[in-house]
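About this split. The held-out portion is used to measure sequence recovery: a designer receives only the structure tokens and must propose an amino acid at every position. Recovery is the fraction of positions where the proposal matches the reference. Here is one held-out target exactly as it appears in the evaluation file.
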């Protein structure tokens, strides 16, 4: 198994990249969102990979983080979702957006992916909802925050109860669960905050979007 490839970025196309490792060019298929985050040609790049082996071909799929690779592996474990479908989903949704769509029971967000219908999106949510926790979704999101915001989030402690109540309140007001989860993930919540205060902050942030 090829866990990762580290070399110089040699080429970029619409759905894949080529990494030069000691004079050998490795083609790796990547989500579109990865293409926007790559270094310049000729610069070093480190890609976490998954190798698909078939009778007629061996294909590498790659991601910039281990978390993205983990979510990809969860997706291809869903009946009817192959590697190309999983790559397409992660081209439309970030891993954070996908987590929030799954936890928020929002098949419409996932079905925006070309080739993924509502039924497949619903099956995906059904099969993955127990494999992704709310706290994991917030933790992964917070890891990507700027250092000062990340420190605030780490200092906040366990606020899952307040978040859960705020999500229910926002959905009662007509927002989708995924919208509520995504908005709350961007708010620094402390243990002593009331749900009402969190709700007001969330509504204010939603009004600004």
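Reference sequence for scoring:
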């Amino acid at each position: 198994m090829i866990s990762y490839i580290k070399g110089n970025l040699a080429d970029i196309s619409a759905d894949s990249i080529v990494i030069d490792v000691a004079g050998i060019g490795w083609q790796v298929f990547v989500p579109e969102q990865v293409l926007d985050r790559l270094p310049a040609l000729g610069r070093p790049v480190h890609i976490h990979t998954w190798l698909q082996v078939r009778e007629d071909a061996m294909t590498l799929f790659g991601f910039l983080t281990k978390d993205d690779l983990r979510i990809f592996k969860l997706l291809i474990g869903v009946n009817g979702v192959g590697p190309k479908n999983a790559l397409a989903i992660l081209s439309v949704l970030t891993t954070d957006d996908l987590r929030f769509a799954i936890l928020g029971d929002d098949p419409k967000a996932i079905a925006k992916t070309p080739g993924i219908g509502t039924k497949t999106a619903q099956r995906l949510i059904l099969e993955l909802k127990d494999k992704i926790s709310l706290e994991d979704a917030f933790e992964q999101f917070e890891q990507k925050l700027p250092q000062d915001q990340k420190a605030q989030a780490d200092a906040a402690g366990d606020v899952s109860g307040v978040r859960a109540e705020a999500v229910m309140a926002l959905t009662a007001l007509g927002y989708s669960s995924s919208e509520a989860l995504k908005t709350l993930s961007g708010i620094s919540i402390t243990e002593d905050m009331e749900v009402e205060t969190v709700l007001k902050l969330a509504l204010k942030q939603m009004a600004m979007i």
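Annotator remark: Residues 148-158 have pLDDT under 50 and may be disordered.
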